[in-house]
């Protein structure tokens, strides 16, 4: 008779989450050093004389890592360290555990930013040359632009991508847009009430009760 495996305990799961959290935190630090200290002169691949000493704080490995990220994602690669940091905190702190299931929205944000940058290549010609990449959004942004967004035009693509940005940020931050609008509307209505008039307090109370019933 086959022996059943012991169920995974909370301590085991907690240990795995800590390992993942610390690993992501270390990766975030490495990517931060590599990307923000990138200099194309650190690599002979770029057809320039190699810097001596290297400018990249993560050494030759960091220079190649950054170059690969910029080639793939363009300027959108700068989002990688903060996104890694956010998810590392989600694994380290149980109160942020809900973020772990929202990684698809982080990916959607990254792809949307990459595609958005590719819509306006003339605005970012300087960074493109400095980062030695093919497009402001890298190969990913260029492919998304040429394969999908070119069919809806620059204005149409901008509207679509802005919607994706908003949705991604809403789900990543768990921001309650509906609740925020309700609160803002209630505050606006309360400001319009002239408190010097008779029955002003009663009107304020009725406004608050209406908002409570609407919820």
Automatic annotation (TrEMBL):
Keywords: Cell membrane, Membrane, Transmembrane, Transmembrane helix
Membrane topology term: Multi-pass membrane protein
Transmembrane segment boundaries: 20-38, 64-93, 105-128, 148-172
Pfam families: FtsK_4TM
Entry's localization field: Cell membrane
GO cellular component, one term: plasma membrane
Domain DNA translocase FtsK 4TM region per the UniProt entry, residue ranges: 16-181
Protein name, UniProt field: DNA translocase FtsK 4TM region domain-containing protein
Organism of provenance: marine metagenome
Taxonomic lineage from the root: unclassified sequences, metagenomes, ecological metagenomes
């Amino acid at each position: 008779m086959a022996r059943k495996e012991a169920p995974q305990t909370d301590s085991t799961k907690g240990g795995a989450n800590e390992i993942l959290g610390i690993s992501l935190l270390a990766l975030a630090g490495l990517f931060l050093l590599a990307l923000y200290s990138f200099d194309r002169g650190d690599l002979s691949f770029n057809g320039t004389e190699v810097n001596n000493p290297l400018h990249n704080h993560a050494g030759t490995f960091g220079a190649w890592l950054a170059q690969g990220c910029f080639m793939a994602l363009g300027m959108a690669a700068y989002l990688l360290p903060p996104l890694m940091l956010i998810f590392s905190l989600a694994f380290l702190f149980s109160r942020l555990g809900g973020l772990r299931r929202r990684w698809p929205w982080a990916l959607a944000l990254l792809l949307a930013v990459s595609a958005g940058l590719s819509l306006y290549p003339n605005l970012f010609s300087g960074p493109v040359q400095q980062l030695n990449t093919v497009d402001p959004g890298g190969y990913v942004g260029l492919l998304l632009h040429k394969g999908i967004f070119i069919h809806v035009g620059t204005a149409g693509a901008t509207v679509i991508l802005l919607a994706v940005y908003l949705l991604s940020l809403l789900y990543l931050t768990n921001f309650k847009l509906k609740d925020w609008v309700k609160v803002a509307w209630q505050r606006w209505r309360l400001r319009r009430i002239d408190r010097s008039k008779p029955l002003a307090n009663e009107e304020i109370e009725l406004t608050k009760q209406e908002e409570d019933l609407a919820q």
